[in-house]
Amino acid sequence: MSAVLEKEKMLHDDLGVNESGHLTIAGVDTVELAKQYGTPLMVMDEARIRRNMRVYRSAMEKSFGAGSYPLYASKAFSCKYIYRIATEEGMGVDLVSSGELCTAVSAGFDVSNAFLHGNNKTDSDIEYAIECGVGHIVVDNMVELDRIDEIARSRGIVQPILLRLTPGIDPHTHAAITTGKVDSKFGIAIETGQADGAVAYTLGKRNVRLDGFHCHIGSQIFDVTPFCDAARLMIKYIVHARDTFGYEADILNLGGGFGVRYIESQPELDYADFIERIASFIRAEVKKSGVKMPRILMEPGRSIVADSCLTLYTVGGTKVIPGFKSYVSIDGGMPDNPRYALYQSDYTVKLASRMRDVDDFVGTVAGRCCESGDLIQENVPLPTPRRGDILAVLVTGAYNYSMASNYNRIPRPAVVAVKENGEVTQVIRRETYDDLVRLDM
Ligand code: LLP
């Protein structure tokens, strides 16, 4: 393979290079998009989002049976557009705040298909969730359970819930995105015996209905083993709850966490195969234990939206420090993508406007915040960038816009989507300076 063709090799098939040597997404020229909508610009490929959702839906139904389905973990990217797509694709959703709930409601999402998370739900969160008719509340602790029971009683309803348990699994991902260990701010530990106390307490409540258990072990996990380990411990607990309390769980929600390929050296997971491997493990465990097969839910966030998106920036220039590093500056940075600053996350960076030029420069992509750590990626090979070039950071659909800030009073970017018919539509408009001062008194 020639050097040029090798350079054109992309992380996945929906990215390409056109006759002008420009990067394309879903066949659309990214340099033209940057011209039309300005930068920084996030571009989503709608067909890819839908395909990712369909893979989960059909694989879960096939592997676990009817009644098992995916919930899109909307913390990865929450806006009206994505809840509309989730509705059209028959996805449930995982919500983690009243803000996400309000966004889902305003997009017309039927929140009886929603699960509300959160390790500290306020009274007003609980009241709002019950008012909106949220299908399930995933209970984090017993103080919260008391309030849910009281508020449900005052409304004359019985609120379906799951209990969030921590199975005690370390999935060996970045420490900041590990959540299933015993020492965690989330959920109730099995190992310490606290889960037993919680189940007994919950079963004594009249205005909540315990439908089963939830766990989530972490994010960006490429190995099936930690999911099977978590499933084994959760099924063991389901058996224990049946034997101890005569309670049989209907739902086992295994959370999210499947890894996504950000750079060539990471694998591209076959999610259907991953799901089938977990399912065959669960079927065997369930058979051994004699409990009824629970309905399985999963909460993929990253693996639904991450690889559907890229972010376009305009290059400001380069700074070469002889004997040290070289920098390429862009008109965005940690306000639209804080993940390198937070987790030293991997990203693939391309010079979208000159994809066929030779990589004769190695530079660190630096944002424009007054902060040395405002970097997107270090030591990236590129053709020497020139002021006005368009630079693309790939796989930015998850935890980028949803974690964006206005640090240094930088407006958040616009988000556009390429629809299945090739039409481009605005999903979130670019913030203006007026937006920035909107709340100031
Ligand atoms: N369910 C629960 C309860 C979660 O806490 C999460 C993610 C998910 C589902 C979705 O996990 P996913 O499929 O997206 O891995 N900001 C970090 C990621 C934090 C993940 C938080 N919880 C990052 O940018 O990598």
3D structure, described in words:
The longest helix has 21 residues, at 225-245. The protein has helices at residues 3-8, 30-37, 46-64, 80-88, 98-106, 123-132, 142-154, 194-203, 225-245, 271-289, 302-305, 339-343, 433-437, and strands at 15-17, 23-25, 28-29, 41-45, 69-73, 92-95, 114-116, 136-139, 159-166, 188-189, 208-214, 251-253, 295-298, 309-320, 326-330, 349-351, 361-366, 375-382, 390-394, 414-418, 424-428. It is α/β, with parallel strands linked by helices and 441 residues long. The N and C termini lie far apart (61 Å). The strands form 3 sheets. Strands 4, 14, 15, 16, 17, 18, 19, 20 and 21 form a 9-stranded mixed beta sheet that branches. Strands 5-6-7-8-9-11-12-13 form an 8-stranded parallel β-barrel, surrounded by 6 helices. A 3-stranded antiparallel beta sheet has the order 1-2-3. The chain is globular, with a radius of gyration of 23 Å. Ligand LLP binds next to α11 and α12.
